[in-house]
Each structure stands twice: as C-alpha cells, then as structure tokens.
Write a structure and sequence with these properties.
The chain has about 250 residues and is α/β, with parallel strands linked by helices. It is built from 9 helices and 9 strands.
C-alpha cells in the first residue's frame, strides 16, 4: 500500500531529486505541473517530450522533469518551441510560461503561432501579477486589484484583466484547441491538458491552455484567502474550452 500511495503522489516523469521544488510554498505552479506530469505519464510520452520554459517563475522548472527542458529568453518560449518542432517534428513540443511571457513581451509570438497553427502546446499560468520580480501589475491584473505597482488598485485607464484565450481563439486556426482551466479543480485541469496534448499529437495542431493560479507570496494571503481570491478570478475568467464566436 505504501508503494502505491507514493507512486500516486508524484508523477513518474517528475525528477524526484529536485523535490521539494524551488517555487514558493503554496505556489500554484506545483499543482499545474503535477497535472502536466500525470498527463505525460498517462499518454506515455516522456521520452518524446521537450519542455520550453520562460524567464519568471517558470525558470524554476529547469530541472523539474526527467526529460529535456530548454531555458529561453523572456517572451521567446513560444517561437523557440515552434522552431524546435520544425527541426524535430517527431517530438512533442510544450512551451510553459507566465502572464508576462505570453501576454506582454511574448504576445505577438503567441498570436502568430496560433494563427499559423504550429503544432505545439502552450501552457500559460495566470496569477494576475509578475510574481518573480515582486508582484507588479500584469496584463491579467483585474481593475482595482492592488499590486506593488498599483498600490491604490489598478486604474480603469490601464484596462481590465486581459483575456488571452478569447483573443487567441478568434485568430487561431479552426483546428486549434484553446481552453482555460484552474488549479482549483486538478482533475478537470488534467483533462484539459490531455486534450491539448492529444490535439498536438493526433491533429498536428496548435493548442493553448491558460491556467488560473494562486500566488500567496505576492498576494500576501494564506491558503483559505488564496483560494477565495481564485474563486473570484474564475468569475471574471471563465474556465472551459474557448469556442470561436463565429462557430
């Protein structure tokens, strides 16, 4: 029984020598990466997968798994993994990043990869702030939310929280899989990640998954408060597959 429990706790493709991970206590990245790991185990693609990581909190994932991981420049994870896939089309290419890497400096690359239907999977963590550098306001920060660069709350003139999947869906190829999940529902999140990777593998198409997550360190919240705020995020950022408004 002990061995069964141990195997269920940690995905087989995780690098056990690097655990506990380097991310902050309570960070949602760990939950998201655990579901990614379980998905890779279930699909039996560990030996076929390469992961690209961005600058920001995602860079702490550099030794997270037992397969090849590529560290990229900030905002360049998507085009790096597109190029990698072109060079090695038999590989499964995953780009992993935060709000800034995907929606600020990296937005144009994300949009063009979706438009071209490059067969990679992009996974983006949305915790409404630039967590690695101290919790500054990000494109995903909602109006009135306090950050280190919006101490009185985000002003309306800076716009509402950026809804990336909805934008991507409306310019992406019709065969692309676009969805939003949350760490509050790990099993549902795993299902979403599975569909995204299967779309890359079976349909040779682009996939994009935004994951709503918590950041207790910069939010300055305990566990209960963090998940309460996550519930509020889910009201503004609806989870589930994002369909084209024309479909």
């Amino acid at each position: 029984m002990a061995n069964i429990i141990k195997n269920e706790i940690m995905p087989k493709c995780w690098n056990s020598n690097t655990k506990p991970h380097l991310l902050c206590p309570g960070c949602g990245h760990g939950i998201a990466l655990k579901q990614l790991g379980y998905t890779i185990d279930d699909l039996k693609i560990e030996r076929k997968t390469t992961l690209g990581i961005d600058i920001g909190c995602s860079l702490l994932v550099w030794d997270f798994f037992n397969f090849d991981i590529i560290q990229t420049h900030h905002g360049r994870t998507t085009p790096t993994m597109v190029g990698y896939k072109m060079a090695k089309p038999e590989r499964i290419s995953i780009a992993y990043m935060g709000d800034g890497g995907g929606y600020a400096i990296g937005l144009q690359s994300l949009l063009h990869a979706a438009f071209r239907n490059n067969p990679i999977t992009v996974i983006l963590i949305n915790n409404e702030n630039y967590a690695m550098t101290g919790g500054q306001m990000a494109p995903t920060t909602e109006t009135k939310v306090v950050t280190t660069t919006s101490p009185d709350g985000k002003k309306i003139e800076f716009g509402p929280g950026f809804k990336g999947p909805e934008l991507v869906r409306n310019i992406a190829n019709k065969n692309a899989y676009i969805s939003r999940g949350s760490i509050s529902k790990p099993e549902v999140l795993k299902s979403i990640i599975t569909k995204a990777l299967e779309n890359q593998i079976k349909n040779d198409s682009f996939s994009f998954v935004e994951i709503l997550s918590i950041c207790p360190t910069n939010w300055k919240t305990n566990a209960a408060e963090s998940f309460k705020r996550l519930e509020e995020m889910e009201k503004y950022y609806p989870t589930g597959e994002i369909l084209n408004s024309k479909s």
